[in-house]
Design a protein that fits this description.
Number of helices: 14
Strand content: 5-15%
Largest sheet: 4 strands, mixed
Shape: elongated
Structural class: alpha/beta
Oligomer: single chain
Helix content: 55-70%
Distance between the termini: 77 Å
Order of helices and strands: HHEEHEHEHHHHHHHHHH
Length: 410
C-alpha cells in the first residue's frame, strides 16, 4: 500500500492512454463513475491451479484484498489461470496490486495466465506492468559518501569565495547605479530616502541611546577601581571620552543598526524576491537597485553618523554619572578634564567611521536579500547571514581603521 498514492497520481494518465489506443472501446477505468455501493475486490481459489478475481479493484476497493494475496499459495512448477471476468472496475492502484501478485507467483516459478479482462482493463494493466519493469531496469542511485573533513572545508571555502565575488559584483552594480544618480539627480527618490532615514535613524534613537548610556556607565565603573588605587580619579574623563568617541560609540551604533535595520533590509527584499515582486519590477522597466538599494544606502549614510553623535553624548553622560557616584568627580571637573583630554581628532575619527559602516550594513543586507530563493525558510536564512556578515565586516573594518590610524599616528 506504500506506493498506492504514487500510482493514483498516474491513474487519469493511464486511463486516457488506454482510451486513445482503442477509440472503439469505452473507457472502463471508471472507479470514480460508480461511487456507490462498491463490491470490494476479492480473490478466490476454487482449485490449486485456478484463481477467480472479482469486485472493484480500485483504491477504495482493495483495502481488504491485499493482505489476502499473501495467503495465495500455488504448487511450484505449475500453470495457473487467473480469471478476471468478475473485475468490475480497475484503476492504477488495483492494477499495481494485481501486478504485484503476478510477479510474486512468477518469481516462484509458476506460469500465470490472466484471462477474461476487459480490453481497457488489460491495457491499463499492461501500462502498469511496463512502468514497473522500467522502474526495475532503472539503475539505482549511487549513495553519496559522507564528505571528509577536508572536503567539507574545501566546499565551504569555495562557497565563501563565490559569495565574495558575487558581493564584489553587487558593489560594482550599486556604484554604477549611484553614478547614474549623480549624473541625473532628478532620478533620486527623495520620498524613499526620507522614509529610510526615519525608520533606520530616528526610530533607532531610543535603543542606541539606552545602550550607549549603559556602555558609558560600564566603562567608567570598570576603570573606577584601578584609578582609585593610584589616586587618578580625574582621569576617568580621559578613559570614558577617548574610548566612547573613538571606538565604542561608532561600533555599538553600527552593531545595533546591523541587527535592526540590516536584518529588515534583507527580510524585506528577500520577501519581495520570493513573491516575484523583483521580477515584476524588471518586467515593467524599474531597476530594483535604484528603487530598493540606493535609497537605503543614502539614508543610512546620513543617519548613522547622526546616531553616532547621539551615542557619543549619551555614553559620555553615563560615564559622567558613574564618575560622580564612584569616584567623587563632579560634573564641572569631569567636563573641564574632558575638554583638555579629548581633542576634535578623536571625535572626527569616530564619526568618520560611521559612513563606512553604513555602506557595509546596507550593501550586505540588500545583497543577501536579493539572493533569496525558494520560500520563507530562505528568507530567514538570508536574513541571518546578512546580520552575521555585516557585524563581522564592521568589526573587521574597525580593526583596519585602528591599524591605519596607528600607522598615521592619529
Amino acid at each position: 500500500m506504500k506506493l498506492h498514492a504514487t500510482f493514483l497520481c498516474f491513474d487519469a494518465l493511464f486511463c486516457a492512454l488506454a482510451h486513445i489506443q482503442d477509440k472503439t472501446s469505452p473507457l472502463t477505468c471508471d472507479a470514480s463513475m460508480k461511487p456507490s455501493p462498491l463490491a470490494p475486490a476479492a480473490i478466490a481459489q476454487p482449485t490449486p491451479q485456478q484463481l477467480a478475481l472479482s469486485g472493484y479493484w480500485t483504491a477504495r476497493g482493495i483495502g481488504t484484498v491485499e493482505p489476502r494475496l499473501e495467503s495465495v499459495r500455488v504448487p511450484a512448477q505449475t500453470q495457473v489461470v487467473a480469471d478476471g471476468v468478475g473485475i468490475e472496475a480497475l484503476d492504477t492502484a488495483g492494477a499495481w496490486v494485481l501486478q504485484k501478485l503476478l510477479l510474486r507467483l512468477r518469481d516462484e516459478g509458476i506460469q500465470v495466465t490472466l484471462q477474461g479482462l476487459r480490453p481497457a482493463h488489460a491495457r491499463l494493466l499492461a501500462l502498469v506492468a511496463q512502468h514497473v519493469a522500467d522502474q526495475a531496469k532503472a539503475p539505482a542511485r549511487a549513495v553519496q559518501p559522507s564528505p571528509t573533513m577536508f572536503e567539507g572545508v574545501g566546499r565551504a571555502a569555495q562557497s565563501a569565495f563565490e559569495q565574495a565575488v558575487a558581493l564584489l559584483g553587487f558593489v560594482g552594480e550599486s556604484s554604477l547605479a549611484l553614478a547614474r544618480y549623480v549624473a541625473h539627480p532628478a532620478r533620486l527618490r527623495w520620498r524613499a530616502i526620507l522614509y529610510n532615514i526615519r525608520s533606520a535613524g530616528f526610530d533607532a534613537l531610543p535603543i542606541v541611546g539606552l545602550l550607549s548610556f549603559l556602555l558609558g556607565i560600564v566603562v567608567a565603573y570598570q576603570g573606577a577601581d584601578q584609578l582609585r588605587q593610584y589616586g587618578a580619579n580625574i582621569f576617568v574623563a580621559d578613559l570614558v571620552g577617548l574610548s566612547m568617541l573613538r571606538e565604542f560609540a561608532p561600533l555599538i551604533t553600527a552593531i545595533i543598526v546591523a541587527g535592526r535595520s540590516g536584518s529588515a533590509y534583507a527580510a524585506q527584499i528577500g520577501t519581495m524576491a520570493v513573491t516575484e515582486e523583483i521580477d515584476a519590477m524588471h518586467t515593467i522597466g524599474i531597476a530594483p537597485l535604484e528603487l530598493l538599494v540606493l535609497p537605503k544606502i543614502i539614508a543610512l549614510v546620513i543617519a548613522l553618523p547622526l546616531l553616532t553623535v547621539f551615542a557619543d553624548v549619551l555614553g559620555v553622560f553615563g560615564g559622567m554619572l558613574m564618575a560622580r557616584a564612584q569616584l567623587g568627580v563632579g560634573f564641572g571637573e569631569f567636563l573641564d578634564r574632558f575638554v583638555k583630554a579629548v581633542d576634535i581628532t578623536a571625535y572626527l575619527i569616530g564619526v568618520g567611521k560611521a559612513p563606512v559602516f553604513a555602506v557595509i550594513i546596507t550593501v550586505v543586507g540588500c545583497f543577501q536579500g536579493l539572493r533569496t530563493q525558494g520560500g520563507a525558510d530562505s528568507v530567514g536564512r538570508q536574513t541571518t547571514r546578512a546580520v552575521v556578515q555585516s557585524i563581522f565586516l564592521v568589526i573587521v573594518a574597525d580593526a583596519l581603521f585602528s591599524i591605519a590610524f596607528s600607522a598615521l599616528d592619529l
